Amino acid sequence: LPIFDYVDLEGGGTLMMKNSPEKELQMNGRYTINSGTLKYTMMVIPLKEFTIKSGSYAEFHGPLTNPTLNLAATERMRTTVTENNQPRSVNFEVGLNVTQTLQNMGLEFTLEAPEDMTIQHDLSTMSTEQRGRLAVTMLATGMYVNDAGAATSGGVTGQNALNAFLQSQISNITGKALKSIDLS
Fold it and tell me: Are 78 and 119 in contact (CB under 8 A)?
């Protein structure tokens, strides 16, 4: 599912590597990320550059090519939100969490509005899938369009903001991403 165009990491950790003729190259240990960037492209989402959060990591327990990942990355986006016919600018943190192993990656899209308590409260009452759908919509269009029809960018409504194809693609992307994460 995920295709990363570019990953640049800075960090460190204690890693042990084993190389033997009978087995694939083995590694054990954790590489903790201090900083980094991730560029990501997916069908309806144009190339985006996310900042990887400090403390994210790759943990190795065997084959070098299949670490366990725990990466959180965000991009700051600003858009106009219209509520009760009153437009206002809101800063969003749109991102993704990458979990599980490299060969069986889990992907979750995230959305927060840390500086706007009203929008953040609305987001906190939504399911993971609803927030993921809003995050994908924002990444694809630059607009915040919630399920209730509140929208952005000059009074555009949720019903006419996206065509049926785009909505189905967003649902498809978030559905596949949710199936790939471990919610336990």
Answer: no
SS3 for the chain is CCCEEEEEEEEEEEEEEECCCCCCCEEEEEEEEEEEEEEEEECCEEEEEEEECCCCEEEEEEECCCCEEEEEEEEEEEEEEEECCEEEEEEEEEEEEEEEECCEEEEEEEEECCCCHHHHHHHHCCCHHHHHHHHHHHHHHCCCCCCCCCEECCCCCHHHHCCHHHHHHHHHHHHHHHHCCCCC
User: Which token pair is 35?
Assistant: 């900083």
pTM: 0.74
In sequence order, the β-bridge partners of residue 97 are 72, 108
Q: Judge whether residue 174 has pLDDT over 70.
A: no
Encoded tokens for 5: 């165009």
Question: For residues 151 and 56, what is the distance between their CA atoms, to the nearest angstrom?
Answer: 33
Overall average pLDDT of the 11-26 stretch: 91
Distance (Å, whole) CA 57 – CA 164: 38
| Tokens at 49, concatenated | 């550059």
| CA 59/CA 15 separation, integer angstroms | 9
